Amino acid sequence: MDTQSKSNITAVSDAPPTVCSACEARHGGVCAALSSAQLIELNRTSTKRHFDAGSEVIGQGEQTVGYSNILHGVVKLSKMMADGRQQIVGLQFAPDFMGRPFLKESNLTAEAATNVEVCAFPRVGFERLVSETPDLEHKLHQQALKELDEAREWMLTLGRKTAQEKVASFLYLIATHIDPTQPFKKTFDLPLSRADIADFLGLTIETVSRQMTKLRKENVIVIENNRHVIVPDQRRLRMAGGVD
Amino acid sequence: MDTQSKSNITAVSDAPPTVCSACEARHGGVCAALSSAQLIELNRTSTKRHFDAGSEVIGQGEQTVGYSNILHGVVKLSKMMADGRQQIVGLQFAPDFMGRPFLKESNLTAEAATNVEVCAFPRVGFERLVSETPDLEHKLHQQALKELDEAREWMLTLGRKTAQEKVASFLYLIATHIDPTQPFKKTFDLPLSRADIADFLGLTIETVSRQMTKLRKENVIVIENNRHVIVPDQRRLRMAGGVD
DNA sequence: AAATGTGATCTAGATCACATTT
DNA sequence: AAATGTGATCTAGATCACATTT
């Protein structure tokens, strides 16, 4: 899984490192702010890492050891109360940046929802690069604002929507985020279990199940083998989710 | 209310403008990133503005005409669905920065919850200053991350807490934010009506009322004249709110 | 066997209808 | 008179208990 070469002659090279040229995250990701020289510099300490579905990327309260870009897969961010109640507070997709800049320890748990590939950077080097590169901080700022917009949108879903609307909103979110190259994917595999979906929507597993069945019976979606979803009509799904 | 003088001789002055020296927002606010020269520059176009409680600062979908720093008062940020359901997605207190950088139009409504004083900056000039001043963008980035942390914390409240815990969490939030100079204020006036509190917590007015009464009967809080709250024991309030 | 679906029953919070307070 | 409080009733979603599917 670690197919990456860490050697790159410093010299007069002005092409980006091979790994970076091939990287899916470069287009929309934070690395787009970096010059070839900076990519070479960052690439010297970066490693490609794999997380199996279900494995923990970082735990609530743990020290931040590094940051990363998601190359492939879905990561869930969650918070837990003392008594075990859990809320998923966000999902991250390629080419999102992962990690909370400027904080020593994580205030949430990040867990691979599917198999996940990331390009990981050690903390110190990356933070130095950020402080030296205003364009990079600008990119990170933009992503933080995007995540803030999404979190607030989801607060409306959590606070004011019915169970039916919540489930439809979730399916709409997945359809619009699962493939970075398409604005809406009509066909996809759910990256989360019913239990995770419940934790994301503030519902129980049973309610999620029933609402899925209802959306299926109303022909808003087709489900095959539990995880595979087909959305025949994007507009109907938006309506069902109360998405404006 | 507009007691501000806009004149400041450019010359060799290296002291911050008088208005800025007296400004409460300077200490923790984004202006702290600016040099005296930059403060003088920004101050040339900034105006102190007042909003009466209940008046709209900016509406969902409106063009961003400027940004501002809250000097005094509480601003509520809300989102509304097509059918009128409303969710308050955040509260802002002095010395918070208001406005969504880098977006042409607002994706939410900002409304003065109490009487509010702000220091307002026209959009274009401020954006130029941001692009020229990495420290200022860093400050804005930090505030965006702080708001993101708070939004996610609130998602846990909205998705997983009981009505009782929600109301206690709200009171705790106010007690810890209403006075920027104190970590916890034992005595305060509620900046929101019961209707607004309901919209913030994803509850109805009646449920908020009943839970307030319950917290009162359990001696977690004392309420005088509807709006005035006394918290005898910070720990008990945290417990009631499931705050960790 | 672990995840998902579904029926029966329960209950927290919504809804409806007023009373009370500021 | 507008905001708040509270009783009576209702209901969406939770809980409990299994059946079914992968």
Overview of the molecule:
- 2 copies of one chain form a homodimer.
- The first copy, chain A, is of the alpha+beta class.
- Chain A folds into 2 domains: about 20-155, Sandwich (Jelly Rolls), CATH 2.60.120; about 160-240, Arc Repressor Mutant, subunit A (Orthogonal Bundle), CATH 1.10.10.10.
- Chain A is built from 9 helices and 11 strands.
- Chain A has helices at about 20, 25-30, 35-45, 125-130, 135-160, 165-175, 195-200, 205-215, 235-240, and strands spanning about 45-50, 55-60, 65-70, 75-80, 85-95, 95-100, 110, 115-120, 185-190, 220-225, 230.
- Chain A has a 4-stranded antiparallel sheet.
- In chain A, strand 4 (about 75-80) and strand 5 form a beta hairpin.
- The longest helix of chain A is centred in the middle third of the chain and has 27 residues, at about 135-160.
- Chain A is globular and about 55 Å long.
- The first copy, chain A, starts with 17 loop residues before the first helix and ends with a helix.
- Mean pLDDT of chain A is about 90; it is low at about 1-10.
- Chains A and B meet through strand 5 and helix 5 of A and strand 5 and helix 5 of B.
- The structure holds a DNA duplex (22 and 22 nucleotides).
